[in-house]
Amino acid sequence: MVNIRPLPEALSEKARLELNERPERIEEDLSALRQWLAKNPHIRSRVDDQFLVCFLRGCKYSLERTKEKLDMFYTVRTMSPELIRSRDPLNPRTLEIIRLGVGIPLPHTDTPDSPRILLIRPAAYEPSQYTIEEVIRVSTMANDLMMIEDDNFVIAGQIGILDLANVTMAHFLQFTPSFVKKMTIMSQEASPLRQKGFHYINTPHGFEIVFNMFKSFMSEKNKSRLYVHGCDMDSLYKYIPKRLFPMEYGGDAGPIQTIINQCEEKLLSYREYFLEEDQYGTDENKRPGRPRNAQSMFGVEGSFRKLEVD
Fold it and tell me: Fewest C-beta atoms under 10 Å: which of 9, 102, 243, 293?
């Protein structure tokens, strides 16, 4: 008996049409994945149904792609301890960042089978007080939680809105080329989640440097899903209805602080889950063939500090 959440009708139909989901085959596919994991001792993976079906859905039920994605998911995480390890939401510093609300999922979707919208506000944190790695660590926690809880997020995908209002050069200087490459690999190659678009608003001077750096590591498909609106909110609302935004953006989703409080409550309720996560990853000494390492995966020459900034 498969232990996954039943889907609402609209998402069930989207999963069938777009992801090749066949409910009668899920148990067989999950069993095949578990057998493969048992034969690959270098991967220490969660094996519960809801977690594994997220990867099957993200790979449109191609078993081979799912295996590659699962391996890459845990490999990248093992090579990125600064982003993944020690994610206790009760750690005082982690809790401080959660309460800043740098990245928050908006509570409503446009239609029952529309993507989840994530609002990212880098200026909510002070770069002299927190590193970008600490901030992204909290965002990986929210991502992991939505992977197992949010069917719109997994099936319909995600739309990111990056609000760069009040972002300073100190924020941009935290983005080294190696960090940008790591983040791009993590989202493009090591995540089962479907990126349906990324919108940039309130873009300041200097933005193009970091933007072009991100683009240089992206696939052509993901480049085509980037939209820069500057300060033209009406341009953004052509893609995402204004009513879905928090009150501070003129929408109907309530105050940002309420959304942040709900995120905090949810993350704290998953504390045991995050503490367990430290036991999962890859053991490169047991990998068949050549072991992988961080240098071969993320190594990039130079640093952002050396780039010309007007």
Answer: 9
* CB burial readout 273-289, b (16+ within 10 A) else e: bbeebeeebbeeeebee
Query: Where do the domains of the chain lie, and which CATH numbers do they carry?
Result: 9-82+279-294 (no CATH), 86-269 (3.40.525.10)
Give the integer Cα–Cα distance in Å for 155 and 202: 29
Interval 54-105: pLDDT, tens: 999 999 999 999 999 999 999 999 998 888 888 999 999 999 999 999 999 9
Whether the CB-CB separation of 253 and 259 falls below 8 Å is answered with yes
User: Which pLDDT belongs to residue 223?
Assistant: 78
Residue listed under structure tokens 């190696």:
178
User: Which DSSP letter does residue 153 get?
Assistant: I
Say if CB 177 and CB 300 are below 8 A apart.
yes
pLDDT above 90 covers what percent of the chain?
Answer: 72
pLDDT of residue 310: 31
Q: How far apart are CA 46 and CA 93, in angstroms?
A: 27
pLDDT of residue 210: 72
Task: Please tell me what DSSP assigns to residue 238.
Answer: T
Three-class secondary structure of residue 86 per DSSP: coil
What distance in Å separates the CA atoms of residue 59 and residue 67, rounded to the nearest whole number?
Answer: 9
